[in-house]
């Protein structure tokens, strides 16, 4: 069909019978739009990250993440109850110790803040899956995700047994799932073997597979009081690479990952979509601290509609293929979706 813009038909438009395809019919009312929506958010797919801090008297709101708290035992348990009541699928725990050392030894202290936080969450809601972060960056005095070699580089192979030890302690404490996030080569295989040998054959591994060296992790550093100077580019991935991200996913699948993850989410939706094509296990995506804060600060400044943009961002992640969405809005959005 050719449309001619001769002086005779100008302003009259096309005769209606010539426009057979009218996609707008399915957009006309909210009820019709809801019927034909291809993507629906579900609180059961959400994972809520929570930060526990050793020796904290009162919960403390993060300057870099408005609305997000560093938790005491009491406030953590309250947040876990609220998440469970709202139908959120799981909580994911990070912890900050009072004392750090070069090895990060508080990470595998059976009565340290990380294992305690797991117990607090499990006690609060025994049915809610608790995902415990497995990484050393919160626990080392240099802030890297592993131990250092004499030359100052992060020693991959010396770090692996420490992850294995930490994993067994957190599984003992009751974590149903572990989230190894340190990007050491071989970490999933080593952790799986150690868990199985300790009898934790049912502990789920949610592997941070395609994790990028991202500026969007910035606010998280305040949340866990990370001591890092420099960056993680020698172990986390280059944001320019997608083939490499898929290789990481394949390696984690070979090593026994039960869930694979792409992180960050919003700036990596292409990686996520491709990971979903090659994965035979659920794929999670993590909308990280900086992605949270961008929306929060823009909304505070009056530049965007907060609720609308949060829902749009999460819908985009789901539409790209994520089965699970780790995000800091989980409980609040679950409430919106229910009402
Ligand atoms: C490492 C870890 C980080 C995040 C989750 N796990 C920080 C990093 O890799 O530098 C970032 C999460 C976020 O920014 O929301 N334990």
Number of helices: 11
- Calculate the terminal CA-CA distance, rounded to whole Å: 46 Å
Instruction: Look at the helices and sheets and give the structural class.
Output: alpha/beta
Which range best describes the helical content: under 10%, 10-25%, 25-40%, 40-55%, 55-70% or over 70%? 25-40%
Indicate the low-confidence ranges by residue numbers.
none
In spatial order, strands of the major sheet run 1-4-5-6-7-8-9-10
Mean pLDDT: 95
Task: Tell me the major beta sheet.
Answer: 8 strands, parallel, barrel
Provide the β-strand percentage band.
Answer: 5-15%
Q: List the helices and strands in order.
A: HEEEHEHEHEHEHHEHEHHEH
Q: Outline, from the CA principal axes?
A: globular
Q: Quick one: how many beta strands?
A: 10
Named once each, the bound ligands are: ligand PBG
Q: What integer value in Å does the Rg equal?
A: 23 Å
How would you briefly describe this protein structure?
By secondary structure, the chain is of the alpha/beta class.
Structure write-up:
With 339 residues, the chain is of the alpha/beta class. The protein has eleven helices and ten strands. The chain has helices at 30-36, 73-86, 113-124, 156-172, 187-197, 218-223, 243-254, 269-278, 289-300, 306-319, 330-338; strands spanning 46-53, 60-61, 69-71, 90-96, 130-134, 177-180, 204-211, 259-263, 283-286, 324-326. Strands 1-4-5-6-7-8-9-10 form an eight-stranded parallel beta barrel, surrounded by eight helices. It is globular and about 80 Å long. The model has no long low-confidence stretch (mean pLDDT 95). The structure holds ligand PBG. Ligand PBG binds at residues 133, 135, 137, 145, 181, 217, 220, 232, 288-289.
